[in-house]
Amino acid sequence: MIRRILAAACTAVLIPVLVPAAPAHAAAVIPCPKPKVAPPPNRPPTPVPPPDDPVGSAIGGDALATHGLVIPAGAKAPPAVTASTWMVADLDTGEVLGGCGPHVFRTPASVQKTLLAATVIDKLDPKQRITVTAGDLDIERGSSAVGLLVGGKYPISTLWLGLMLNSGNDAANALARLAGGGGTDGVARTVGEMNALAKRIGAYQTHAVTPSGLDGPGQFTSAYDLALIARICFANADFRRYVLTKSAQMPAQPQLKKGGFQFQNENKLIYGYPGAMGGKTGFTTVARHSYVGAADRNGRRLVVTLLGAEARPMRGYQQGQALLDWGFSLPRDESVGKLVSPEDVAPSPSPTPKPAAPQPAAAPGGTDGPPPLLSMLAAGSVALLLAGAPLLLLLTQRRRRRRTR
C-alpha cells in the first residue's frame, strides 16, 4: 500500500518539473536573404563558437531559437544583406520584429564598446581629467586609435567621444582602467564587470575578453544580446549625445608640445538617415563588419544589430539602414519575440525556511497523516520544484504572436 502511495506522490510532484523542460521539436530553418556576392578571398576562418544552449537560444521566445530567418507571418521579406546574423527590435516596447539567427554566436569587433559603455558610463564623471599611461596604448598594431598620448591629460568626455566616434581602442583601455580602479588590473576588473552585466540582463551569448572588441579567444556575442545592451546604452543621455556627435576636438597637450586635432564620427547613418539616433560600427579581419544603430520615426524607436557582414555590396551601416527601413514598414503590433528585462531573468529568491511546527502525537494504533517517509519525499520534491522555478519561468516566458515565415 505504501509503495503505491509513494509512486503516486512522486508522479504528482515530479511531472510538473520535468515535462516543461522536455526539448521541443526543432522547426525547419528558413534561409536568410543573401546577396549573390563572393566572399573576399583573404577572409580568415570563423572562430569555433560554443555549442548552442537550448535555454539561452530560447530567451525572448521559442521562435528566436533558430539559425535561420524569423519574421512575422505575412510580412514582406527583409532586404538581402551579407550579415551572418541580425535583428531588429523596438527599443521601448522590447518587441522583436524579426531577425536572422538572433542567438547565434559571433565575434563582436568594436560594437563591444557598447557593452563597455553600458557597464561604466554612469561610474565615471565626464568632467574628470585623467592622465594616459603607456598601458592604455597597448593595443593591436594597426588597429583603430583616436591618438591619445602617454602623459597626455584628457577629460573623460573626450575619451568617450574618441571611443564612440573614432572607435579608439586606446580610449577603451583608458576608460576601462579608470573604471576598474586605475591600477594595472583595472582593465581586467572592468572586463569582469562587463561579463557580469551581460549575465544580469540576459545576454547569455556574450563573453568579453577585451574592453574594446579587439579579438580574443572565446570572445563572442549575438545580435539579440547586442540589442539588450543597446537598450541600456540608449537610455543614457550622455551616450545618446556622444553617438550623435558628428565631429569632436582632441585637446592640445602643451606639456608634450603637441597640438590638438579634429576627428569625425565613423557612423555614416547620422549624416543623412531621418531620425537617426546614432550607434556603433565595428570591424576586425576575424569578426568582419558589425553594426549597432537606432532611429526614431514618429515616436517609434527601433534598433538594428548585425554581425559578420562584408562591406560589399553595402557597408555595415547601409545594411543597418536597409533593415531599419524594413522594420519601420511593419505594423507596430508585429512581433516574433521579446527583449527580456533584467527582472525577467533574475533568479527567484529562495524562500525563508520556517521553523518546523511540533508534530502531534499519533493516536494509539491510528494511521492519521502521511507516513514519515512520504513526508520526507514530498518535502524534497517541493524543494526540487522551487529550485527549478527560474528555469521554468524562462522557458515559459510570455511570447506574443510567435509566428514565422
TrEMBL record:
> Which parts of the sequence belong to the Peptidase S11 D-alanyl-D-alanine carboxypeptidase A N-terminal domain?
76-310
Superkingdom of origin: Bacteria
* InterPro entries per the UniProt record, alphabetical: Beta-lactam/transpept-like, Peptidase_S11, Peptidase_S11_N
User: Is Transmembrane found in the keyword set?
Assistant: yes
Q: Where is the composition biased (Pro residues)?
A: 348-358
Q: Does the keyword Cytoplasm apply?
A: no
Q: Which Gene3D superfamilies match?
A: DD-peptidase/beta-lactamase superfamily
Q: Where are the transmembrane segments?
A: 373-395
Q: Which SUPFAM superfamilies match?
A: beta-lactamase/transpeptidase-like
Q: One GO molecular function term?
A: hydrolase activity
Query: Which portions of the sequence form the region Disordered?
Result: 339-373
Keywords annotated in UniProt: Cell shape, Cell wall biogenesis/degradation, Hydrolase, Membrane, Peptidoglycan synthesis, Signal, Transmembrane, Transmembrane helix
Give the signal peptide as a residue range, or say none if absent. Answer: 1-26
PANTHER family linked to this entry: D-ALANYL-D-ALANINE CARBOXYPEPTIDASE (PTHR21581), D-ALANYL-D-ALANINE CARBOXYPEPTIDASE DACB (PTHR21581:SF33)
What family is it from? Belongs to the peptidase S11 family.
Report what the protein is called: Serine hydrolase
Name its species.
Paractinoplanes bogorensis
Its lineage reads:
Bacteria, Bacillati, Actinomycetota, Actinomycetes, Micromonosporales
